[in-house]
Design brief:
Length: about 270
């Protein structure tokens, strides 16, 4: 059966765990060749992934898809540039760049936030997305242009924390706010070249990052109480949104920050 992304080449950062893994699998299942990239090839302990013991690229190739793994730290521009170069040398081009890698250093107010926590969060969540967008857009602009359709899709994984203030998450919210507005800014600059730049803003989902919330009975109850939707989301919900933003179905969608949050921020 034809997939929505047949013949496309995608890079996903932070693809070993959680949302990145779900996005990589979803893009592959629509036909994309996927360059999976992370600091570590194994999924983080504490995640909720099916087949957690099998690396993402091995799950994909086991299903008959095309994938490889490249180790890259998104806080290092040289790593991110080399990652995009590998996608091009292995698969010929880059069509979809998913800047997903992210970190969260736990709940605390700004009074207790250390310089290291702030710098680390901004380096991964904000600067890492900047490096990914820059490398991807440089490559997309260099590729032959047939004069129609999208010349490339950049998808940044932001957060509802980039749209509203979440209690006791100062650096996380600041870093995601940077991603939200960088996404809009790049969409404006590269609309004339037909490069789509969008973000996904997930609400609270069951991944290793959110395990400490879900394992704490009080925080778990608070998350469920605050959610208008009867259940929390999953990484697969992010995978489906990314598939839409990677496909031709979102051809004229650019500069959007697509909330995937069960109406959490709608009220
Ligand atoms: N889980 C949620 O509820 C939620 C909600 C909103 C947004 N997000 C965002 O989704 C993205 C993925 O989060 P997740 O929940 O899957 O987290 P996760 O902790 O399960 O996975 C994050 C992955 O990123 C990798 N990573 C971390 N630092 C990296 C670096 N410097 N370079 C390369 N890879 C790195 C980790 O090794 C890990 O595999 C993040 O940007 C996060 O902020 C998550």
């Amino acid at each position: 059966m034809a997939g929505k992304l047949d013949g496309k080449v995608a890079v996903v950062t932070g693809s070993s765990s959680g949302n990145g893994r779900a996005v990589a699998l979803a893009l592959s299942r629509e036909g994309a060749a996927v360059v999976c990239s992370d600091l570590r090839v194994a999924a983080l302990e504490g995640g909720y992934e099916e087949d957690i013991g099998t690396a993402t690229h091995d799950v994909i190739t086991g299903e008959g898809g095309a994938a490889l793994y490249v180790s890259a730290d998104v806080t290092k521009a040289a790593d991110v540039d080399a990652l995009v170069s590998t996608a091009v040398s292995e698969y010929g081009r880059l069509d979809v760049m998913v800047n997903n890698a992210g970190v969260f250093t736990g709940l605390h107010t700004i009074v207790d936030e250390t310089d290291d926590q702030w710098d680390f969060t901004m380096a991964v969540n904000a600067t890492g997305v900047f490096y990914g967008c820059r490398a991807a857009i440089r490559q997309m602009l260099a590729q032959p242009d047939d004069g129609e359709g999208s010349r490339g899709k950049v998808i940044n994984i932001a957060s509802i924390g980039g749209l509203v203030g979440l209690a006791q998450e100062p650096a996380y919210c600041a870093s995601k706010g940077a991603v939200v507005n960088l996404t809009r800014q790049l969409a404006v600059d590269y609309a004339p070249q037909r490069i789509n730049v969008n973000a996904i803003c997930p609400g609270f989902l069951a991944t290793a990052m959110v395990r400490p919330f879900l394992d704490d009975p009080e925080l778990n109850k608070a998350l469920h109480d605050q959610s208008p939707w009867p259940h929390l989301g999953t990484a697969e919900d992010v995978g489906k949104a990314a598939t839409f933003l990677a496909s031709e179905e979102s051809g004229w969608v650019s500069g959007a920050n697509l909330v995937v949050d069960g109406a959490f921020t709608a009220g």
